[in-house]
Amino acid sequence: MDCYEIMADLKPGVSDLEFCDAVNAYLGHLQAAGKLRSFRVKRRKFGFSPPGFCEFWISAEFDSLSQLDEAFQRVAVRDPEIEALHAEVYSRVSRIETALYRDFPDPVRQR
User: Residue 31 and residue 62: Cα distance in Å, rounded?
Assistant: First the structure.
């Protein structure tokens, strides 16, 4: 499992629930198209985190790097439908940080 981690802070005045609705619509669209396995939206609780962490953490889980690439290819075409869903998310974000993780140990790691 490859996990694309997206950390985000919202622009001032942006509704947290509207942001979550936009993320659910965007990533739900990719999930329905088979471009990702699952995703979760998490929010920092009680302001508890190391310095520099964002308020929201979104985990998008992919079966493989190939599936992740398919998701990026789907977004990169920038057709009106996916572009509108993408814009609804990223127009609300003031800062974004990303990372790529994998389940470990995984079948690639030999003992």
Answer: 10
Query: How many C-beta atoms surround the C-beta of residue 35 within 10 A?
Result: 20
Residue-wise pLDDT tens for the chain (111 aa)? 999 999 999 999 999 999 999 999 999 999 999 999 999 999 999 989 888 899 999 999 999 999 999 999 999 998 999 999 999 999 999 999 999 999 888 888 877
Please tell me the distance from the alpha carbon of residue 80 to that of residue 46, in angstroms, as a whole number: 38
Classify 2-45+53-102 by CATH class.
alpha beta
3-state helix vs strand vs coil in the chain, percent to 5: 35, 30, 35
- Note whether 37 and 63 are within 8 A (CB): yes
Alpha carbon distance 111, 22 (integer Å): 42
Domains of the chain, by residue range, sit at 2-45+53-102
pTM for the full model?
A: 0.91
